[in-house]
Amino acid sequence: MRGFSFALWAVPIYFLLDITVVGKDYDIIQGFIEWFGVPYGLLLALVLVNVWTQFEATNRSFDEEADAILMVYDTTLLVLDSSIKAKVCCLLLLYAKHVYKHYDDEFENKTKKSIGDIILNKIRTSVGILLWDKNDKELGLEIIREVNKLIDLRGDRLAHSKQRILPPVFWLSFIASIIWLLPFFALNFIDPKLGIVFITGVTLIVVAILLVILDLDDPITGTWKVKLDSWKDLIETIEKLNRKVSS
Question: Are 46 and 206 in contact (CB under 8 A)?
């Protein structure tokens, strides 16, 4: 919608400028649009691929962490010590709820980030007690390995959440878009209706691409943002299983 609104302003600007170009200048402008469009299109394609790859990596990191939590939980259910089992299961639920509630700013809020770290450290400490139990020692080692993997995935998810496209790269794309778009306003259309359609369409496409880049570059709060359906299902699953464990 923002791109369409901006594109509509291009029409009155085109008629207000009323640029008339003839002769060799007109040929130069046509040639410039043609040859500059090649590197410009390549630049935007590379930027789009980069932000899309980063968006997918962020989205995937959330799913992988949720899967790791469920794996730790399922393994914990095999523990014979009921008190440790109940404690770890409750802590895993607490951690899942913490991420689900604060995922949008945990990567930049040190207080909320430390809370998540503390919960995971409590889980690892609780499981560490099993290493002194002959019956659950091997199981305890396996859970600790899974918790360490979960901690690594948490770090990856936080790193991906705060990763953004370099400002110079975006501004280069923005300036290149303006440079490529301006010569279109110097084209002389015999039919004003054709000029309106052409100028509006080209401006809309350029602005839309830039807005898509900006939106994908913010996978947490953008229009296209990470989906937390897996985390919602995870919390519901753990809550149901916790009721069975407590009973």
Answer: no
Phi-psi region of 224 (alpha: psi -120 to 50; beta: other; left: phi over 0): beta
Confidence at residue 10, expressed as pLDDT on a 0 to 100 scale: 55
Per-residue exposure over 122-141, b if at least 16 CB sit within 10 Å of its own CB, e if not: ebbebbeebeeeeebeebbe
What are the CA-CA distances from residue 189 to residues 23, 61, 116, 185, 195 (Å)?
15, 51, 61, 10, 6
For residue range 173-185, what is the model confidence (pLDDT) as tens digits? 888 888 887 777 7
Amino acid at 50: N
Residue at token pair 């229009």? 223
Greatest mean pLDDT among 118-122, 159-163, 183-187: 118-122
Contact 235, 100 (CB under 8 A): yes
- Quote the tokens at residue 128: 């560490």
Where are the chain's structural domains? 2-246
User: 154: buried, middle or exposed (CB in 10 Å: 19+, 13-18, 0-12)?
Assistant: buried
